[in-house]
Amino acid sequence: MSIAVLGSGAFGTALAIALCSGGREVTLWARDPATVTAMRETRRAPRLPEAPLPDSLTLTDNLAEAARAPVLLLSVPMQSLSSLLGQIDDDLDGTALVACCKGIDLASMTGPSGVIATAKPQAVPAVLTGPSFAKDIAAGLPTALTLACAEADWAQDLQRQLSTRSLRLYRSDDMVGAELGGALKNVIAIACGAAIGAGLGDSARAALLTRGFAEMMRIAEHMGARAETLNGLCGLGDLTLTCTSDLSRNYRLGLALGRGTDFNPNLTVEGAATAQALAKIAETTALDLPICTTVAHLVTGALSVSQALDALISRPLKEE
């Protein structure tokens, strides 16, 4: 069975490279024809130049052609997902749409599975998420991810198709929990990066990571997710990785904010938009989300790092 990866960013490219093992038919779609031409000539991808593209990997800029595959991995920024789905034909009965993006859509205030269900109700939605960096996956380093799908038969089939010798997938039927874990940890990573960038130390980062995880659990419970999902790879596992490595874009954005330095505006940082979505949720519910709300104000420039710190440490003392 053939697989198409829609999106030639670092993560999409890494997945395409990894999936080429085992004789799979894999297509990687990029939006820009010039990018596809360059990748064909050099067998390198601009967002992951250190990893050679296998000769067996098909490269295309023809979305309709790529979307004929029965399994589509959607590896585009969260805020672009709805637009991408709108460009794909509606005849998707028997097609699995596997979201590889992490975040909350600001227009619908839903995660990727909700966007898929609205845009393409005849397709089978799934979520692939967990602690992973593109360069590790492309290099064949051991990586474990969560594959969430509500349909048991599809979940087992996708698990078999998308697992490799180095890429180990664990099944879950809790799509809401899986996608929330991947989305929310990015917000906490920005907070942790800001703490380190501002010179507040590892103890402050540990406190933000732990209390941030408490907020993640609070949000997940409110949205109907299961606690054990957030305690797994797609929650605690991804949170730990993202909050402790400068390979994470969200963490690096936090570092830049904490240091008062510039950050590359061309890099997609999903946590910035997710924080703003969470701030809106906090406004309309009784959820107490001080770290997420503070990050939202931080990334929009409404608060400086010192003001954000003051806002957090001046909160009333309470039980853990």
TrEMBL record:
NAD(+) binds at G7, S8, G9, A10, F11, G12, A134, R249. GO terms for biological process: carbohydrate metabolic process; glycerol-3-phosphate biosynthetic process; glycerol-3-phosphate catabolic process; glycerophospholipid metabolic process; phospholipid biosynthetic process. Residues 174-309 form the Glycerol-3-phosphate dehydrogenase NAD-dependent C-terminal domain. Its EC number is 1.1.1.94. Residues 2-154 form the Glycerol-3-phosphate dehydrogenase NAD-dependent N-terminal domain. Sn-glycerol 3-phosphate binds at K102, G130, S132, K185, D238, S248, R249, N250. Gene3D superfamilies: N-(1-d-carboxylethyl)-l-norvaline Dehydrogenase, domain 2, NAD(P)-binding Rossmann-like Domain. One of its GO terms (molecular function) is glycerol-3-phosphate dehydrogenase (NAD+) activity. It holds the Pfam family NAD_Gly3P_dh_N. GO terms for cellular component: cytosol. The active site is at K185 (proton acceptor). Substrate binds at K102, R249, N250. It is found in: Cytoplasm. Its main location: cytoplasm. It catalyses: sn-glycerol 3-phosphate + NAD(+) = dihydroxyacetone phosphate + NADH + H(+); sn-glycerol 3-phosphate + NADP(+) = dihydroxyacetone phosphate + NADPH + H(+). Keywords: Cytoplasm, Lipid biosynthesis, Lipid metabolism, NAD, NADP, Nucleotide-binding, Oxidoreductase, Phospholipid biosynthesis, Phospholipid metabolism. Pathway: Membrane lipid metabolism; glycerophospholipid metabolism. NADPH binds at F11, R31, K102, A134, R249, E270. Belongs to the NAD-dependent glycerol-3-phosphate dehydrogenase family. Catalyzes the reduction of the glycolytic intermediate dihydroxyacetone phosphate (DHAP) to sn-glycerol 3-phosphate (G3P), the key precursor for phospholipid synthesis. This is Glycerol-3-phosphate dehydrogenase [NAD(P)+]. It comes from Thalassococcus profundi. The lineage of its organism: Bacteria, Pseudomonadati, Pseudomonadota, Alphaproteobacteria, Rhodobacterales. The gene is gpsA.
